[in-house]
Amino acid sequence: MDNLAELERKIGINFKDKNLIREAVTHRSYLNEYPNQDLKHNERLEFLGDAVLELIVTDYLFRKMPESPEGMMTGLRASLVKTDSLIKVAHKIDLDKFILVSKGESKDKNSKGFETILANAVEAIIGAIYLDSGFAAAKKFIEENILIYLEEIIRNKEWKDAKSLFQELSQAELEITPKYKILKEWGPDHNKKFLVGLYLDDKLISKGKGSSKQEAEIEAAKEALTLKKEKGWSI
């Protein structure tokens, strides 16, 4: 962990308690592989950081967007704190150079699993900053690394769920409201699966699978948005 100072420079915090930043970048898998290390894994800090992140983002949106309805702020918050946003932060600070994981986890640094580990570590770092330097320092880190994407999210309408966005586009551009139909369902009652089709008039546009009708509908809408982006309304 000789490179801790470099990580501190990247996140703009000189930790008084170096054990906090060590803990923040230590994944459980590393300790499973090296049980004799005098380290703690970062899950407790991740739990704390998640709460701090949500509070600071919520407070920021509430104060900066006084005319925005609750639904919009909820969508914006979800977009800002989601895993994909945290992965951007992880890449920005080159967190993959500092994270401690097992050899197995580190084999494919482009895998979804590894990127999720990085995103969780960002939350742990926020928790560590909060404990070491207080609320203001955590807020500064979040403003400089996460809230900077707010305008982009608003501009691209990323805060809207896929169903709402596709309906808005199809009504505005085609004057058609999409409809969803269950094409298939299977599995026992406690573990049902659904296949749903998204239709414009009578034309099947896309399909989606999920563990609930709503989840399947969202997946169908996501697929429809992807197809629209690629082919326009010729889908």
Please tell me about this protein's structure.
- With 235 residues, the chain is mainly α.
- The protein folds into two domains: 152 residues, Orthogonal Bundle (Ribonuclease iii, N-terminal Endonuclease Domain, Chain A), CATH 1.10.1520; 73 residues, 2-Layer Sandwich (Double Stranded RNA Binding Domain), CATH 3.30.160.20.
- 60% of the residues lie in helices and 10% in strands.
- The longest helix has 22 residues.
- The chain is globular, with a radius of gyration of 21 Å.
- The relative contact order is 0.11.
What's the name of the CATH homologous superfamily of the largest domain? Ribonuclease III domain
Strand order of the largest sheet: 1-2-3
CATH class identity of the largest domain: Mainly Alpha
Radius of gyration: 21 Å
* Element-level helix/strand string: HHHHHHHHHHHEEEH
Helix run count: 12
Q: Please identify, by name, the CATH architecture of the largest domain.
A: Orthogonal Bundle
**Protein structure class:** mainly alpha
Describe the structure using short key phrases.
235 residues, mainly alpha, Ribonuclease iii, N-terminal Endonuclease Domain, Chain A, Double Stranded RNA Binding Domain, three-stranded antiparallel β-sheet, 12 helices, 3 strands, globular
Topology (elements, then pairings):
Layout: H1 4-11, H2 18-24, H3 28-33, H4 43-64, H5 70-81, H6 83-92, H7 103-106, H8 112-133, H9 135-145, H10 150-155, H11 162-174, E1 179-186, E2 193-200, E3 203-210, H12 213-231
Antiparallel strand pairs: 1-2, 2-3
Helix pairs in contact: 2-8, 4-5, 4-8, 4-9, 6-8, 8-9, 11-12
